[in-house]
Amino acid sequence: MATTVTQAAPAHSTLAGGTLPRWATPVLLGVAIALGYALNVTTGLAGWFGTTLVIGGIFILLQSGWSFRVEGRRHAVDRLATTLVYSTFIAAIVPLVSVLFTVLVKGLTVMSWTFLTYSMRNVSPRAEGGGVGHAIVGTLQQVGIAAAFAVPIGILAAIYLVEYGRGRLARWISFFVDVMTGIPSIVAGLFIFTAFVLGLGLERSGFAAALALAILMLPVIIRTTEEMLRIVPNDLREAAYALGVPKWRTVIKVVLPTALAGIVTGAMLAIARVAGETAPLLLTTFLTQSYNNNPFQGPQSSLPLFIWDQITSGTPASVDRAWGGALVLITIIMLFYITAKLLAARFAPKG
Amino acid sequence: MSKSIELKDVDIYYGSFKAVEGVGLKVQKNAVTAFIGPSGCGKSTVLRTINRMHEVIPGARVEGHVLLDDEDIYGEGVDPVNVRRTIGMVFQRPNPFPTMSIAENVLAGVRLAGGRMSKSDAEAIVEESLRGANLWEEVKDRLDRPGSGLSGGQQQRLCIARAIAVKPQVLLMDEPCSALDPISTLAIEDLIRELVEQYTIVIVTHNMQQAGRVSDTTAFFNLAGVGQPGRLVEMGSTSDIFSKPQQQATEDYISGRFG
Q1: B234: alpha, beta or left? (left if phi > 0; alpha if psi -120 to 50)
Q2: Most-buried pick from A107, A233, A285, A347 (CB within 10 A)?
C-alpha cells in the first residue's frame, strides 16, 4: 500500500505525504472557467457545449498535473476519478433539471383555474383559452382502471412466482413476463384494438385504453414485486411457520408487509410509466375535445393525447396549451409518487 | 402440559441426498436434551424434523416415525401447522418481525394463527410471555416500539417469548446463543433452566460447556465420513457423556481431539 508516494514525502516521516491545499479544487475550477470563457470570447469558437468540455479538460489537466507533482500518482488518479464521477453525475442530472425547468416555465404561462377545469370544446386551435379538464378526467380514469386491473393481478402473480411457483408452469410464466416487458406500447394498443374492438365488436372507449395500459403495467409490477419479495429474509418466513402460522397467512401478514414499501414504489413507477403513454391510446380511444366522464362509452381524451393533439395543431396558442398539459401530467405523476412514498413510509419496517 | 418425543429409525433427505440416517432416540419431558456434534453432522436437521420444519425446504423429506407422546407427527392426515403450534422453535439468529412492535411480535403466533382475543387477554398474554422470557422489566415501557430496536440478546428473548406465547408443549432451540455475547448467553441459559419446569426442551449447541451447563441429557451426532449421512453416535445423561463416554468418537470430540 502507498509505496509509490515516495518522491514528494518529507524525509522525516514515512507516512505523511504532500497534499494540495484545501482551496485547490475551487480555485482550479475558477481558473478553468475563466480560461475557458476567455477562449470562447477571444476565438469565438465552440458554443456553450464545447466551452463546457474545454473547461472540464483544462480543470482535469491542471488538477492532475499539480496533484501528480505534489501528492504523487495514487492521489492524482484518485482526484481524476473523483472528477469523472462528479462530471457524469452532473451530466445525468442536467437533462432532468432542464426538462423540469422548461416544462415549468413554459407550462406556467397558460396555467389557471380555467385551464385546469375547461375542455377544448368549441375552442379553435388558433384561439387562446380552453383547457385540459377533459384530459385530466380521462387520464385519471384510464390510469385508475388500468391500475385496478394490473396492480392486484401483478402482485398476485409475483406472490405465486416467489412463494408457490415450482416447476414448468412457473418457468413459463416467468418467461412470458420477460417477453411482455419488451412489448412495444403500440403493439399493446393494437392487441386491445384487435381483441376488444374488432373481435368483440365493442366501441373504442377509455376502458379499452385502460386495458392496453394494464397490459403495459403488468410485467413491470410483477418484476418489481418479485424482486421485493425475494429479498424478504427466509428467517422471517421460517419464524412464522415455526409459530404454527399457515403459509398463506405468513405471506399476507409477514412477507407482504415487510416488502410493502418496495412494492408500492414499483407499482407507482408502473403507473407513472403508463400515464405518459400515447401510442396505445391512439388506437383504443378516439380523440375528443369535450368532457366525457364515462370511460365505457364514446371517445375520451387524456393528457398525452391532448399534448399530442395540441402540438400537431402547431399554432402558438396550441403549443402553449401543450406545455401546460405536460406540466399537469408531470404534476399528477409527482403527486401520486409522493403520496405513495408517504403511505409506504408509514408501513415500512421500523427500527 | 409438556410431552415427550421419540424418534424411531428416522432417515432424512435433501432431494436424493441422505443427510441423516437411522436416528432413534427418546426425549424426556420436562428435561433439557442437548444435541452436540461437528458442523454438518445433521443435528439441526434432526431438530427441524421434530416440528416438521424440515419439509419447508424444497425437495426435503423424512422417512420413519416421530412420536409426540404416542402420536406420530408424520402420520396420515397430520397437519404440519398443528404440529408447529404444539412444538415451538427458536432459531440461531434472532428474527423478530420487523414490521411489528414488541407487543405485536409476542402476539404474532396467536393472532396470525387466527385467534381473536380481547384487548385485556392480549395484554395478559404479552405480559405473561415476556415475564416468562425474563424480558418484561426491560421492555414494559416500550411495548409499542419496534422489536428490531432491541439488542441481540433481548431480541432472542423476544423470540422465546413469541414462541411460548402460543403455549407449546415442546420448545426446540437451534443454537440460540451462537449470535450472542456471554452475558446474553447466560441470561438465556438461566431462562432455559426456568422454562424446563413447564416445557420439554431440545437444544442444538456447538458450545460443549453450554451443553454441560443446561442439559440433563446429551446426544452426540457425527458423520461416518465425508459425503456420508450423519448419525446418532451415543446418547446418555449429560454427566455420563462428559465423564465416561462409551464411544471413542464421543470422547475425541468432547476432549477436543476431533477427527
Answers
A1: beta
A2: A285
Distance between CA atoms of residues A130 and A110, nearest Å: 10
- Tell me A301's DSSP state: -
Q: Find out whether A347 and B99 touch, Cβ atoms under 8 Å.
A: yes
Cβ B145–A253 below 8 Å, yes or no? Answer: no
Task: Give yes or no for residue A235 having a pLDDT over 50.
Answer: yes
Scored b (16 or more CB within 10 A) or e, A250-266 reads bbebbbbbbbbbbbbbb
CA distance A282 to B232: 72
- 3 state SS of B50: helix
pLDDT (0 to 100) of residue A131: 85
A282 class by beta-carbon count within 10 Å (0-12 exposed, 13-18 middle, 19+ buried): middle
pLDDT at A11: 60
Of A166, A233, A246, the CB nearest to B81: A246
Parallel, antiparallel, or unpaired for β B217-223 and B200-204?
unpaired
Residue A92 has a CB neighbour count (10 Å cut-off) of 9
Rounded distance, CA A174 to CA A73, Å?
Answer: 50
Rounded to whole angstroms, the Cα distance separating B38 from B253 reads 8
Give the full edge-to-edge strand order of the sheet including B71-72: B71-72, B60-68, B5-14, B17-27, B230-237, B217-223, B32-36, B200-204, B170-174, B87-90
How is residue A298 annotated by DSSP?
S
Alpha-carbon distance B174 to B156, whole Å?
A: 12
Q: Which three cell numbers stand for residue A136?
A: 385530466
Q: Does B117 touch chain A (CB under 8 A)?
A: no
Predicted TM-score (pTM) of the model is: 0.80
In this predicted structure, the answer to whether residue A163 has a pLDDT above a threshold of 80 is yes
**Nearest-CA distance A175 → chain B (Å):** 21
The C-alpha atoms of residue B130 and residue B122 are separated, in whole angstroms, by 12
A236 to chain B, any CB pair closer than 8 A? The answer is yes
Which residues is B223 bridged to in the sheet?
A: B230
Check CB contact under 8 Å for A238 and B91: yes
DSSP A58-90: HHHHHHHHHHHHHH-HHHHHHHHHHHHHHHHHH
* Amino acid at site A209: A
**Is the CB of A233 inside 8 Å of chain B's CB atoms?**
yes
pLDDT digits (tens, 9 = 90+) for A212-231: 999 999 999 999 999 999 99
Q: Could you tell me the end-to-end alpha-carbon distance of chain A, in angstroms, rounded to an integer?
A: 39
Distance from CA of B196 to the nearest CA of A (A): 19
The yes-or-no verdict on residue A41 having pLDDT over 70 is yes
Is the distance from CB of B64 to CB of B7 less than 8 angstroms? Answer: yes
ipTM score of the complex?
A: 0.87
